[in-house]
């Protein structure tokens, strides 16, 4: 299951500073279409947040944009 989080990290890093939809993450990371109550992607992002060390600039690694997806925050 850990490799899914790694794949999500890679995909978000490729789109640094850009919103990546949950649908796109599900398709690319899990290889399946997102279903209405599917929380798998959210769990993988949550695991990444716990796994990654705190950033020196104090900003979060990821932002959740409700109804849109996630973005990896670029360094300030």
Report on this structure.
There is one protein chain. This protein is mainly alpha-helical. It has one domain: Orthogonal Bundle (Arc Repressor Mutant, subunit A), CATH 1.10.10. Helix content is 45%, strand content 11%. The protein has a two-stranded antiparallel sheet. Strand 1 and strand 2 form a beta hairpin. Helix 1 packs across helix 2 and helix 1 crosses helix 3. The radius of gyration is 12 Å and the shape is globular. 18% of the residues are buried. The model has no long low-confidence stretch (mean pLDDT 93). GO terms for molecular function: DNA binding. Keywords: DNA-binding. It comes from Salmonella enterica subsp. enterica serovar Urbana str. R8-2977. InterPro entries: OmpR/PhoB-type_DNA-bd, Sig_transdc_resp-reg_C-effctor, WH-like_DNA-bd_sf. It holds the Pfam family Trans_reg_C.
Strand and helix map with partners:
Layout: H1 2-14, H2 22-30, H3 40-51, E1 62-65, E2 69-72
Antiparallel strand pairs: 1-2
Helix pairs in contact: 1-2, 1-3
Within the CATH hierarchy, at the fold level, what is the topology?
Arc Repressor Mutant, subunit A
By DSSP (H or I, 4+ residues per run), the number of helices equals 3
Number of strands: 2
Structural class: mainly alpha
**N-to-C span:** 31 Å
Over all CA atoms, what is the radius of gyration? Answer: 12 Å
What CATH architecture would you give?
Orthogonal Bundle
CATH superfamily placement: Winged helix-like DNA-binding domain superfamily/Winged helix DNA-binding domain
Number of self-contained structural domains? 1
CATH C-level category: Mainly Alpha
Would you identify the regions where 5 or more consecutive residues have pLDDT less than 50?
none
Order of helices and strands: HHHEE
What spatial order of strands do you see in the largest sheet?
A: 1-2
Q: Characterize the overall form.
A: globular
The biggest beta sheet reads: 2 strands, antiparallel
Calculate the mean pLDDT score and round it: 93
Strand content: 5-15%
The helical percent reads 40-55%
GO biological process, one term: regulation of DNA-templated transcription
Pfam family, one: Trans_reg_C
Organism: Salmonella enterica subsp. enterica serovar Urbana str. R8-2977
DNA-binding region: 1-74
């Amino acid at each position: 299951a850990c490799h899914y989080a790694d794949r999500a990290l890679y995909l978000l890093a490729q789109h640094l500073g850009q919103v990546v939809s949950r649908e796109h993450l599900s398709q690319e990371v899990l290889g399946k279409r997102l279903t209405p109550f599917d929380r798998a992607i959210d769990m993988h992002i949550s695991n990444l947040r716990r796994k990654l060390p705190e950033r020196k600039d104090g900003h979060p690694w990821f932002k959740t944009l409700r109804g849109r997806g996630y973005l990896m925050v670029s360094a300030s």
